[in-house]
Amino acid sequence: MAYAVHRLVAQAGPLSDHPNPELPKRPTRRKFDRAYKISILAEWDRCSEHGDKAALLRREGLYSSILSEWRRQARSGELTQQPGRRQPTTAEVERLRLENEQLRIDLARAKVVIEVQGKVRALLDDLSKSADTDPS
C-alpha cells in the first residue's frame, strides 16, 4: 500500500505544480496609509484595560513591532508631514544657508553698484548741462 501511495505522489510531480486554489499565488505585503497608522496609534493610546492592546493587535492583524515603528515615525514627525514631502537633510540645510548668505552679499554689492551708477549719471547730467550753458 505504501508503495502505491509513494508511486501516486511521484506521478503527481512536485507540489508547486499544483498550487492550492484557496491560497493566493504569492503573498503580498500589506501597506498602511498615514491615516490608518494615526488612527491605530490613537486607539492604542486609549487602551487602558488589561488585554486591550493585545486585543487591538489581534483584531487588526498587527505585530507590536509594527506599532513600535509607527510610534517612532510619529515622534520623528514622519506621520504628520504632507505626503510626498520629505524633510531636508542637515547637509542640504547647510548648503542652502551658505547659498542664501552668498546671495545676500551679491545683493548688497548690486545695490552699491546701482547707487554708484545713479551718482555717475547725475554727475554726467550736471556736466552736460554745464557744457551746454558754457559760452566758450
Can you walk through the features of this model?
The model has no long low-confidence stretch (mean pLDDT 84). This protein has 5 helices and no strands. α2 packs across α4. The protein is an all-alpha fold and 136 residues long. The radius of gyration is 37 Å and the shape is rod-shaped.
Summarize the SSE layout with pairings:
Elements: H1 2-12, H2 34-46, H3 52-60, H4 64-76, H5 90-133
Helix pairs in contact: 2-4
Quaternary status: single chain
From the spread of the alpha carbons, the general shape counts as: rod-shaped
Spatial extent as radius of gyration: 37 Å
- Give the helix level as a range of percent: 55-70%
Count, helices: 5
Give the structure's gist in a few sentences.
The protein is an all-alpha fold and 136 residues long. The protein contains 5 helices and no strands. The protein has helices at 2-12, 34-46, 52-60, 64-76, 90-133.
Give short descriptive properties of this protein:
136 residues; mainly alpha
